[in-house]
Amino acid sequence: MVDLDPQLKAPSSNMSDKKKELLSTAMKRTSEWIFSQEIPSDVTVNAGGTSFSLHKFPLISKCGYIRKLVTESTDADLAVVEIPDFPGGPEGFELAANFCYGINFEITTENIATLRCAAEYLEMTEEYSVGNLVGRTESYVNEVALKSLAGAVSILHSAENLLPIAEKVKLVSRCIDAIALVACKDSQFAAPVRAGGSGPNDSMPVVDWWAEDLTVLRIDLFQRVLIAMMARGFKQYALGPILMLYAQKSLRGLDAFGKGRKKIDPRQEHEKRVVLETIVSLLPREKNTMSVSFLSMLLRAAIYLETTVACRLDLERRMALQLGQAVLDDLLIPSYSYTGETLFDVETVQRIMTNFLDFEVDVGYNADDQDRVSPSAIEVEKVAKLMENFIAEIASDRNLSVSKFISIAELTPEQYRMTEDGMYRAIDIYLKAHPALSDMERKKVCSVMDCQKLSREACAHAAQNDRLPVQTVVQVLYYEQQRLREAVDGSSSLNDTSSIPAKPGPYSGDVHIVTDEVSSLRKENQDLKLELVKMKMRLNEIEKPSPAAFGSPSPATTVSRPGSADKPPLPPLPKKSFISSVSKKLGRFIRADGISAQGSRGRTKPAKDRRHSIS
Predict the structure, then answer these.
(1) C-beta separation of 589 from 537 below 8 A
(2) Using CA atoms, how far apart are residues 352 and 313, in angstroms rounded to an integer?
(3) What is the mean pLDDT of residues 220-244?
(4) Integer Cα distance of 248 and 600 in angstroms
(5) If exposure means fewest CB atoms within 10 Å of the residue's CB, which of 174, 420, 479, 581 is most exposed?
């Protein structure tokens, strides 16, 4: 008896399948006849805000949802069916209704997601009809659509508006897995890194052929695709070009490079903010996988959209890691505040530079963290030059305060700057743009510059610069005199050594070059001596008390120029003792650190037209 049970059940199962098939065929013919005879409709379906005048028989023969509504309704003659939240809207219901009436239409990757979700909502399963819409759509998805990356992306893009039912039928997860599988299979960055093989520094990421297709996805689905790719072995440092493509397309139209903030739609602003924060969270941690210009663009957008503080600080830290590769435009971030303080965002650049200095000091708090690498000497020199150019660029801003100028100038350590010409240029621009500064403020501004590192051209310009304080000019002249004296002493020892006759060699022509250099140095030294004498005379005029301080003016107390009738001209000094005598006299006004002495209490500010005149 037990052995006969399967044999008895099998024919009954086959009989039920045959009956279902015959019933479905009959219903299909009936539906086609109803459609062809133009029989008046007996039910109205309101789906997604659109009314459809249909017939009950074709609908209940394939749709379990509508059959339940009709059978469970208390109204024996149900004439209206309301489906307000139909997936796919009226277009999706129209496709499902066409299938119920037996009307032929083409299933494509563009409408398959809508058809699958509509069939699931209407319960168009094999239980109600053989070869129903659920089975048809499932076969197309598995056998056609998910076999190519373009098809999977198209279905996933369509499923964005079909949630949560698209998640219920696992349409989203299957598309994400298919995309990740194809992407990792066709990408060179999915294979494990071989010994001495392609890393982020050896093989820079390139844009794969499928990267452009992913940019049509919504940011949440795009993020899930990238996470699935990395789970399958895709290297994170190779995500850079994909993220750049997506950011350029998603943030297009955002005016993050102009002054001020333009009004945009709040909803659009929120969407772009979410996109930006998600992209930043997906950025590779490896160094040199993203360009500094792209990071600067993201930082501008983050400040413009007012993203979270953590997002902005992360971008600043990433820029600091690659600051040696930056150019001036990367640091010229507009200030989007309405206060109108400065034209460019100085505080952000200060934080970036502080992070760079921290990376140089803290070489490795974590040995496994590759982004903690001490910058090289060449990179440090580039950063110092970059900061000098940045300071010179913002120095012309009239709203830039003295304290802010000094704080940004003091960020670059002096040992990073080979010369002070760039800093002197920035100071000169700042003093020219702020002519109302007091003498004390000008001294503070000039204190960020080391006069000993100025070149000859910068010293010659500073000696005649009316915008500099007198103390700074004297300091420049003093250090230049010291430099020339050392050069002359060195050339004298060279001449003494070269006075010994020697055989002419292949490099004997260089002696003439050295002789010319020594003669030019001596000439410059003589000019500098004359300038120092004139500066000393001007300082004497300043320090002498005015006649008004002792009552009525007296001819005996007036100061006369050298060579006048009241006072005989100064006798010429011997050549050998000139340097020592000037140094001794100049020591009364300048300390060892180059700052003028404070002994002159009755000192007054000289007129600008006479302070630095050469005559």
Answers:
(1) no
(2) 9
(3) 91
(4) 64
(5) 581
d(CA 532, CA 585): 10
DSSP string, 216-271: TS-HHHHHHHHHHHHHTT--GGGGHHHHHHHHHHHTTT---SSSS-----HHHHHH
Cα 123 to its chain centre, rounded Å, is: 50
**158 in the Ramachandran plot: left (φ > 0), alpha (ψ -120 to 50) or beta?**
alpha
Q: How many CB atoms lie within 10 A of CB 84?
A: 8
- Cα separation, 606 vs 600, in Å, equals 14
Cβ–Cβ under 8 Å, residues 527 and 456: no
Is-contact 329 349, C-beta < 8 A? no
- Greater confidence, 109 or 336? 109
Q: How confident is the model at residue 335 (pLDDT cuts 50, 70, 90)?
A: confident
Instruction: Compute the average pLDDT of residues 178-196.
Output: 65
485's enclosing H/E stretch is helix 470-498
Strands 43-47 and 80-83: parallel
Bridge partners of 47? 50, 83
Mean pLDDT across the stretch 561-576? 43
CA separation for the pair 512, 136 (Å, rounded): 96
Cα separation of 66 and 88, whole Å? 17
pLDDT at 255: 64
**240 and 290 in contact (C-beta within 8 Å)?**
yes
DSSP state of 42: -
Residue 440 has pLDDT above 50, yes or no: yes
- CA–CA separation, 309 and 347 (whole Å): 14
CA terminus-to-terminus distance, the chain: 133
Which residue, 287, 202, 273, is CA-closest to 240? 287
With b meaning 16 or more CB within 10 Å and e meaning fewer, what string describes 381-392? Answer: ebbbbbbbebbb
**Residue 598: DSSP 8-state:** S
Helix (H) or strand (E) segment spanning residue 51: strand 50-54
- The answer, yes or no, to whether residue 166 has pLDDT greater than 80, is yes
Residue 170's CB is within 10 A of a number of other CB atoms, namely 11
Other beta carbons within 10 angstroms of residue 295's beta carbon come to: 23
Name the residue among 323, 279, 285 with its Cα closest to residue 298: 279
Return d(Cα 244, Cα 320) in angstroms, integer. 19
pLDDT tens, residue by residue, 58-90: 888 888 888 888 888 777 677 888 888 899 888
Whether the ω angle into residue 84 lies within 30 degrees of 0, i.e. cis, is no
Sign, CA dihedral 189-191-192-198, equals negative
- pTM of the predicted structure, to 2 decimals: 0.69
Q: Angle at Cα 128 formed by Cα 126 and Cα 130, nearest 5°?
A: 45
CA dist., res. 539 & res. 533, Å (int)? 10
List of long-range contacts for 570-577, beta carbons under 8 Å, 24+ apart: none
Range 385-388 contact pairs with CB under 8 angstroms and sequence separation of 24 or more: 385/422, 386/323, 386/326, 386/327, 386/328, 386/331, 387/353, 387/411, 387/412, 388/412, 388/417, 388/422, 388/423, 388/425, 388/426
CA dist., res. 317 & res. 311, Å (int): 10
pLDDT tens-digit profile of 526-552? 677 777 777 777 777 776 655 444 444
